[in-house]
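Example complex used in Figure S2.
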Amino acid sequence: MRRSAWIFLAAILLPSLALAWMAVRSARDQQVIVEHQQAIICQDITDALAKRIQDQVENSRSTFVQTTDQLLEKSPSTQLLAMNFNRKLRNAWDLAEVGFAVDLRGLIYSPGPNDGLIARTFRDDNARFLSNRENVEVFAQRPSKAPKILSQAFDLQADAGQEQSAKDPNQPPSQQAVQQGQFPAQKVQIERQVVPQSNFGQSTASNTLPEESDFRKVIGTETSGTLARFLEDKLRIMVWYRPHDGSVVYGAQILQSRLADSFRPLLQSPDIKKNDTAISSGVEYSLAILDDRGKPIALSRPGFAADWKHPFAATEIGEALPHWEAALYPTDPKQLHRSAATLQLVLGLIVAVLVAAILLGGWLMASDVRRQMRLAKQQTDFVSNVSHELKTPLTAIRMFADMLSEGRVEERERQNKYLRIISAESARLTRLINNVLDFARMERGAPSPERRPCDLVEIVREVVSTCQPHLDAANVTLSLEIDAQELPVTGDPDALAQIILNLISNAEKYGGHEAVVRVSQQNGFGCVEVLDRGTGIPPKKKEVIFQPFHRLDDSLASGVTGSGLGLTLARRTAQAHGGNVTYSPRPGGGSCFTLTLPLSVPVKTQ
Ligand code: ADP
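Predicted assembly (606 residues):
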């Protein structure tokens, strides 16, 4: 048994558990791969949206250049346009909040001090920067997208012979300069507005870093560009343009609310939408454009709300709109966790069911092996018990027959006694052989002999009278109590007699010196009770004794012979006749075996 347990453990349980573990791991890896793939797709969407926004800013810059060229064409002189640029531009271009004109020496032509409150504030905020008297942190972008601020700034400084802060050792170096190896790397890090989940725990430092510069350095040798700067934590976006033939630079501070309005249609553009729905995991997403404070200024689904700081994927829009983000959110954030949790639950259930099935199979196997072993032992016991039971009566028969045939016993009474013993032992042999043959017949499933109407009372009387000599020889007193005149049943009288014989034989073997056979009629059933004053049956064993070959005590140890088939046959035969044989403890000690058989004709109690 222990060996089978080891084989089960090594050949079935451990490999199955290892397989289940590998399945769980591979499913989890699959999930991670799917999430990464999804993150890549989502990142592509936000990258595309960021690019569209950059293009939109670029378009605005182009429109500004065109508008300025038109104004220049219409204007009688450059000087005149420069003086009135704020007013003229605001009339001609709806994105302009303030228009400005400044020459490279730093002389500001427009807006004038009397152009209104916004213009005055603009002058206060930007005059020193525009007239190159102050270096400020700016994010600059040129159409070529080559960030040349410092390299050109150095050229300009060299040309102008001016003291510029870029050469000031106290000023921080630009990223470009650091990349070019001009400065030792410095850890300047600005955190992004958002922490995208698709980063999978990687850094969220912003790629858009400001440069220290004045206006002239920003312009360099370019003809137009955009620049952004933070003033008291508020972002200001400007476009500028220097016509080829002039020394005046025209510019505008952009009205951000209008610029934001121009982004909204981008979220509905078919290619972005198409990508949005291309994500195949069944999770729905929404796009948002976040401003420099991380607040949404445009949404692909109106009314959609989310934890804006934690998108699934996001892309920085870049220098044109520093700290702005194109972000993508799952429409139902719990859906992501739900699909992961569902997968884990399904896997867990599959593994649990597998393990339970393996354990159940193991347990069934083990109990079957145990049953087979018990059966094998019982059959071995049966062979030795039957041999023993055959030998005992045969020895007695042979001994007494020899004594009689050799004429060694002369008294008539002793001769009769020995003859009775020979007859009783032959009856015992017959009963044993009948039991074995009946059992074999039943196991084979052979048809039972034909049934006919018979009287149970008569059968009992006959069996008791047959047993009497044997009981007398064994010194067992048997009393017969009959409460019915006749009990008509339909059946095989020999088989029914064998049941009663087996029960009386057991009472003789295990029941002490006193036995009672009681015959009665109860609720349409004929009852034969065989009672004794023996040890009785322990409650736990009261059903087991009806199983084939089952004996409570070993024949050799107890000295009582038996095959373990008597009760099995008694019950099976009774059940085949529509009745049963049951055990109950006898009040006052001992056993009570009851045979019940359905009566073929109802009878009255006596
Ligand atoms: P056996 O040939 O061993 O008597 P049975 O099927 O007739 O086989 O009985 C099965 C077992 O039930 C017996 O071995 C015995 O232990 C127990 N048993 C049967 N009848 C009695 C009884 N009247 N009193 C006590 N134990 C009994």
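The chain has 14 helices and 18 strands. The first strand starts at residue 96 and ends at 103.
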